[in-house]
Write a structure and sequence with these properties.
six-stranded antiparallel sheet, alpha+beta, two-stranded antiparallel ribbon, 26% strand
């Protein structure tokens, strides 16, 4: 059913688009040979000529077109005739070609004004993100944050959450092990390693027992102020781990000590310890109170176990001027 609805809406958009081309062409007294609704595949369902233009409906309804004499090599219209698009000034050709997109933009504005007029509200493009509940698995980090059903998620890591993709992307970018470590954390881990293992040199032999310091907790991930979901490129901070360091990281995760199974360096261990987790600090509104929850640490898939409920916020309009301005802005 959703596919059928989408195809119907797309067909309306295409029809309006082609009407835009057709209307401006006729305004400039250009000849239009055909106005087709649907693509010219299979049988033609209906066809009738109005003046110089043949209007037709094709059986393959998804699509549409406007055909000028310039598109028809067999046209009887002389090559230098002013009714040909190619013989018109550039500014007229520009408006004929642009008219389809402009018609779609006008349609969008009209639809928003129509909705605003009947409902008294305009969509804001912003959303309220509520907690619908938690995943049942207690291993998810959300269970350790005191987040509750019906909490309104206001911010995460200082970023205002007014669309679901912001929250989801912060969680994805904060997932455990992103294969990067900052120089500052690497140096700290080297110092801690040598404190716990004072006899270590940079190069470590096989079968050496190593005591491990607590893993590093990275800084919270934020988003750029200009962030747009799916557009803003994420650039991890720090140095990328090599394959040896990644393997070692996975092996020593959550351990307090281990025995080396091949030669390695203190730097390798420091790298492995420095790539760990990024906290998500969630601010929620509960009643009239704003609450900063305990940090949540996503798993390796960027999941913390919160089910979201999304409600679009609406902007009320109380006058025709507000309705028109709000619709234009939207």
């Amino acid at each position: 059913m959703h596919i059928i609805t989408m195809l119907l809406l797309l067909s309306v958009l295409i029809l309006i688009h082609e009407l835009g081309h057709f209307s401006v062409a006729k305004l400039f007294k250009l000849q239009v040979n055909r106005f087709g609704f649907g693509l010219p595949f299979g049988p033609t369902l209906w066809e009738k000529k109005f003046g110089e233009t043949t209007v037709c409906i094709h059986s393959f309804l998804l699509g549409g077109y406007v055909s000028f004499p310039d598109d028809d090599p067999d046209s009887n219209l002389p090559e230098d005739d002013k009714k040909r698009l190619s013989n018109r000034p550039v500014w007229q050709r520009f408006w004929v070609i642009s008219a389809g997109v402009i018609a779609n933009a006008i349609l969008a504005l009209v639809l928003v004004i129509f909705v605003a007029g009947f409902s008294g509200n305009i969509p804001s493009g912003k959303y309220n993100i509520f907690v619908a509940g938690l995943q049942e698995d207690k291993h998810f980090a959300a269970h350790q944050t005191d987040i509750q059903k019906d909490d309104l998620i206001v911010a995460a890591n200082g970023v205002k959450i007014d669309m679901p993709m912001k929250f989801i992307e912060i969680a994805q970018r904060s997932k455990k092990f992103d294969n990067y470590a900052t120089s500052e954390n690497i140096e700290k881990q080297k110092v801690e390693l040598l404190k716990l293992n004072p006899n270590l040199t940079e190069n470590i032999d096989k079968n050496t027992k190593i005591l491990l310091p607590a893993p590093v907790i990275e800084s919270p991930i934020s988003l750029e102020k200009s962030y747009i979901p799916g557009v803003s490129e994420y650039k991890p901070i720090g140095e990328k781990l090599n394959e040896t360091q990644i393997t070692l990281r996975d092996k020593i995760s959550e351990k307090s000590a281990f025995v080396t199974d091949n030669p390695m360096t203190v730097s390798d261990i420091a790298f492995a310890l420095s790539d760990n987790v990024h906290p998500i600090i969630i601010t929620v509104q509960r009643g009239d109170e704003l609450i900063d929850l305990q940090p949540a640490y996503p798993d390796m898939d960027g999941i913390i176990g919160i089910k979201l409920k999304i409600e679009e916020s609406l902007t009320p309009v109380n006058s025709p001027i507000a309705m028109l301005k709000g619709s234009w802005d939207y």
